[in-house]
């Protein structure tokens, strides 16, 4: 009898100890969850959303398990976009004068080749006009002299030709020399006539020379307006600067101590476009060193552009480095949703339960983003229908707030 009661007492004690241990484990779970929330950021404990399986099917919710991927080693560098000088040019005044236009170029306007940009009224100072008039008088005298000489040479050629035909009274050589003299005087006349035309167009035939049009030989977008109609401009003065913004270069500063990469391609991410695929950049050349940072600047040509990209935009460049690849967790780009000024993904934590977690976009890799915390190998990431889950989560939150 005493042995039976002893067995009962021992069993009761073990049960009590087991109960305390279970209570301790239960108490530890919230603490562990809170610690994980602190590690993963302020939004790791977001309430998430519950969606029944039937509703998941209707919404087309699809998940993909995270797996460690081999990601090539890269160096992160920073820089800015700038115009490709091969596609930018400046229109300058061909001569001194007054600029006239009824439809002057405006910033951002696209002009095509052959467009009449403006007219320019020639402006010739008195001293220059006198000099041109003197040159014009000399050229006219030269033309008159050449004309008379050509007439005399033609008469001599006619006589020599007739004598040569009459039993070779003069030799063939005399005829050839006379013909050469005629040709030389004609060239002299043509040169004098061309000079006279140029001088007459410069000085004009009246006190008010006619304005001449400034026509674009190449088309492009107006990037800068450097003069205005009504202004008096000198020869060579810049009027407008045009270019083609779809052709851009990235000037990337390689930090001091970093190995300068080879002449291969890189990935470029413009500021504000971190959630979009990187733009490929092809090596162009060395742009020189930065005296302030002592770094080396490299130029890369963007494979493509878009209307929202402009010269001066900041960029982050990812340059491949030797050293092989390392295993990393990569969040697919298609899984990312934007809300509250941040990037998020939904992780399926149960059959009908989804949790929203933040994703840093500072380390893009291929078709996604590298993460080092907040996610584990094997996590089920929602790759289709994340926007629907976001709508459901905020719908539930609004209903709860209204109650």
List the helices and strands and how they pair.
Elements: H1 2-40, E1 49-50, H2 53-59, E2 62-65, E3 68-83, E4 89-92, E5 97-100, E6 110-111, E7 116-122, H3 126-165, H4 172-203, E8 212-215, E9 220-225, E10 232-233, E11 238-243, E12 248-254, E13 265-270, E14 279-289, E15 296-302, E16 314-332, E17 337-339, E18 342-348, E19 353-358, E20 364-365, E21 368-371, E22 380-384, H5 386-402
Antiparallel strand pairs: 1-19, 2-22, 3-12, 3-16, 4-11, 5-7, 5-10, 6-9, 7-8, 9-11, 12-15, 13-14, 13-16, 14-15, 16-21, 17-18, 18-19, 18-22, 20-21
What does this structure look like?
With 403 residues, the protein is of the alpha+beta class. It folds into 3 domains: 49-84 and 246-402, Elongation Factor Tu (Ef-tu), domain 3; 95-120 and 211-243, RNA polymerase II/Efflux pump adaptor protein, barrel-sandwich hybrid domain (OB fold (Dihydrolipoamide Acetyltransferase, E2P), Beta Barrel), CATH 2.40.50.100; 125-208. It is 33% helix and 33% strand. It contains 5 helices and 22 strands. The chain has helices at residues 2-40, 53-59, 126-165, 172-203, 386-402; strands at 49-50, 62-65, 68-83, 89-92, 97-100, 110-111, 116-122, 212-215, 220-225, 232-233, 238-243, 248-254, 265-270, 279-289, 296-302, 314-332, 337-339, 342-348, 353-358, 364-365, 368-371, 380-384. The strands form 4 sheets. Strands 1, 2, 17, 18, 19 and 22 form a 6-stranded antiparallel sheet that branches. A 6-stranded antiparallel barrel has the order 3-12-15-14-13-16. Strands 4-11-9-6 form a 4-stranded antiparallel sheet, with no helix packed on it. Strand 18 (342-348) and strand 19 (353-358) form a beta hairpin. Helix 3 (126-165) packs antiparallel against helix 4. The radius of gyration is 42 Å and the shape is elongated.
């Amino acid at each position: 009898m005493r042995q039976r009661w002893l067995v009962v007492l021992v069993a009761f004690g073990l049960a009590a100890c087991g109960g305390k241990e279970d209570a301790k484990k239960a108490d530890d779970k919230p603490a562990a969850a809170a610690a994980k929330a602190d590690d993963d950021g302020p939004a790791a404990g977001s309430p998430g959303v519950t969606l029944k399986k039937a509703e998941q099917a209707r919404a087309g919710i699809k998940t993909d398990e995270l797996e460690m991927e081999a990601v090539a080693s890269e160096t992160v560098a920073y820089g800015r976009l700038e115009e490709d000088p091969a596609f930018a040019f400046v229109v300058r005044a061909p001569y001194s004068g007054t600029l006239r236009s009824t439809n002057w170029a405006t910033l951002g306007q696209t002009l095509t080749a052959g467009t009449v940009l403006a007219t320019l009224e020639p402006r010739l100072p008195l001293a220059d006009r006198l000099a041109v008039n003197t040159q014009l008088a000399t050229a006219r005298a030269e033309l008159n002299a050449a004309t008379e000489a050509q007439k005399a040479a033609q008469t001599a050629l006619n006589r020599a030709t007739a004598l040569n035909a009459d039993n070779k009274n003069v030799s063939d050589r005399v005829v050839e020399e006379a013909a050469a003299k005629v040709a030389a005087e004609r060239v002299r006349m043509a040169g004098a006539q061309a000079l006279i035309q140029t001088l007459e167009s410069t000085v004009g035939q009246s006190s008010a020379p006619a304005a001449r049009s400034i026509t674009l030989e190449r088309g492009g977008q107006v990037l800068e307006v450097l003069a205005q109609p009504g202004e008096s401009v000198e020869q060579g003065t810049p009027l407008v600067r045009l270019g083609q913004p779809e052709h851009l270069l990235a000037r990337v500063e390689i930090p001091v101590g970093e190995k300068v990469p080879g002449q291969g391609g890189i990935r470029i991410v413009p500021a504000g476009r971190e959630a979009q695929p990187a733009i490929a950049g092809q090596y162009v050349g060395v742009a020189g060193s930065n005296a302030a940072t002592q770094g080396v600047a490299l130029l890369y040509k963007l494979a493509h552009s878009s209307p929202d990209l402009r010269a001066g935009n900041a960029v982050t460049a990812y340059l491949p480095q030797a050293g092989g690849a390392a295993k990393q967790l990569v969040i697919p780009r298609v899984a990312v949703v934007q809300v509250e000024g941040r990037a998020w993904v939904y992780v399926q934590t149960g059959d009908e339960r989804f949790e929203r977690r933040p994703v840093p976009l500072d380390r893009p890799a291929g078709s996604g983003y590298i993460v080092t915390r907040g996610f584990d190998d094997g996590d089920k990431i929602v790759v289709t229908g994340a926007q629907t889950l976001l709508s459901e989560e905020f719908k539930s939150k609004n209903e709860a707030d209204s109650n």
